[in-house]
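Lab notebook page, bench 4
Experiment: in silico fold of construct C2
Operator: M.H.
Input chain length: 108 residues
Purpose: comparison with the prior construct
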Amino acid sequence: MAFGQQIGPPASSKQVQQLRALLEAAGYDDFRSARGPLRLTQRQGLGKFTNAEAVVLIEQLEHEAEESAMDVAVLTAPAKATPRPLRDTPTEVLVAELRLRGWKASKC
């Protein structure tokens, strides 16, 4: 077998189209631009995959897309703030806290 040839049946055109769509959704322009970050071979960077390679890469990209969607959902979910009563906090403590945060505060 020659160097760089694929082992196994080639991926279907449907699989390659699905891969292209997933790569574009992940922010890549094409297979070549995804080659380094996804550690694709030179052959794969040209859009040539075996059926098994395509299945594995599709699963990987779908999994990453799901994780990314979950991260966005967590970041956009409103945080439940616990009320902290400041009325009972001594002025010295409040001034010290502001100074720790970089404010220039002085006692009244």
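Observations: The two ends are 84 Å apart (CA to CA). The chain has a mean pLDDT of 83.
Next step: discuss at group meeting.
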